[in-house]
């Protein structure tokens, strides 16, 4: 017999039984249903006594330490349909994960069902028409390597291990956001399984309102099983980073935001404020000291890119300059630290309409007061192609925002969590007077009010209407949740974390 925080799994007469024990000592015996589930899927069923269970229950954010009763590693869309029907019929908490990078830990739960899409990695590329079909378990590192030989790419997130599914439903603010917009701006169609277990297709011509909501509405309306996207040129970019000592951080950030905002669309950038890493390209006497790093990705002519980027390389005397022509796929090496699984992550983020001197002063002053080896603060200049799509064209409603800040503290689980969280919150609170809006892809477990900061009133009301139509009982609630208004949202009988 195996027991994990409310989950009891055992065998009797060759039959598998699973009981879910709630705090009120209720027990739910899913044995017969699970046996049927196991017989219907092509993928793998992982229960608490499975040798892979301990590894499979874990997600990227180590704070989400949960024990699901059942993990279904789906092989295809038919498996997803079977698993959705099972969760609905058994009234089980349902979590969906592609790469498991949810800051809030939504990709897992205790006592419920996890639909794991990580094995769904098929990608087909039409290099002539510049179209690709992506399954949700692919990581962006895998996608970029597959597209690189064709000289094609898809603007996406910063970290190679983030999977296609979560990011493509959230928006997608990545290395080429100013040149090619959000990742959802390249989306042509979505195949998904809705709460009724039906496989549907959404595009501009088929279920267009659902297609609108899927582009930024996160996982509220179903489980995406494939995406059709328009690709754009990739190949060689002028990329990398330049690092400066943070003694003049405020002046550097003022100049950076001015230059990056006025730059041509081909240049997307972000700033890192952190202690210098113990890397071979950082002089030994500078390692561990506060630095400002400017990361760049220029997608046009390399010679012209050198001219455009030059002022960003001359804001002070660099302690390291790693900017050079490189394949687009090499950009992900700059953020490899974000791939480490199992660390605790404390993060807050905000959009900003402008970069005022007061906002930059508040950022630098608060960041310097809490800087530690666990600190990573990023500031992005947005605009460009992202801003030229109508605000109401997709469920992502912050096209007009000029920038975004993400404050993160991450460390192994033995580091004091309260201290990490307090330092994150200090910078977040210092920036609140200048902030306007939030990005669903970076949201942690921050309460319902923050979801309304992601979706302004008109956007939120349209999303509620879609939720009422496609998920009226809120089966898909382990997300930044849009609550339906036509039926009770409490169908959960197992223990959620």
Q: Biggest sheet: strands, sense, closure?
A: 8 strands, antiparallel
Number of separate strands: 23
Q: Mean pLDDT, rounded to whole units?
A: 92
Helical proportion, percent range: 25-40%
Rg, alpha carbons: 23 Å
User: What is the overall number of helices?
Assistant: 13
> How would you sum up the global shape?
globular
**Which structural class should the secondary elements be placed in?**
alpha+beta
Question: What's the arrangement of secondary structure elements?
Answer:
Layout: E1 2-4, E2 7-12, E3 15-21, E4 27-29, H1 31-40, E5 44-46, H2 53-56, E6 70-73, H3 77-90, E7 94-97, E8 113-116, E9 123-126, E10 131-134, H4 140-147, E11 152-153, H5 164-170, H6 177-180, E12 187-193, E13 199-203, H7 208-214, E14 223-230, E15 232-233, E16 236-245, H8 249-262, E17 267-275, E18 290-298, H9 302-309, E19 320-321, E20 324-327, E21 344-352, H10 357-370, E22 375-381, E23 403-411, H11 417-431, H12 448-454, H13 457-470
Parallel strand pairs: 6-8, 7-8
Antiparallel strand pairs: 1-2, 2-3, 3-4, 5-6, 9-10, 10-14, 11-15, 12-13, 12-14, 16-18, 16-19, 16-20, 17-18, 17-22, 21-23, 22-23
Helix pairs in contact: 1-3, 8-10, 10-11
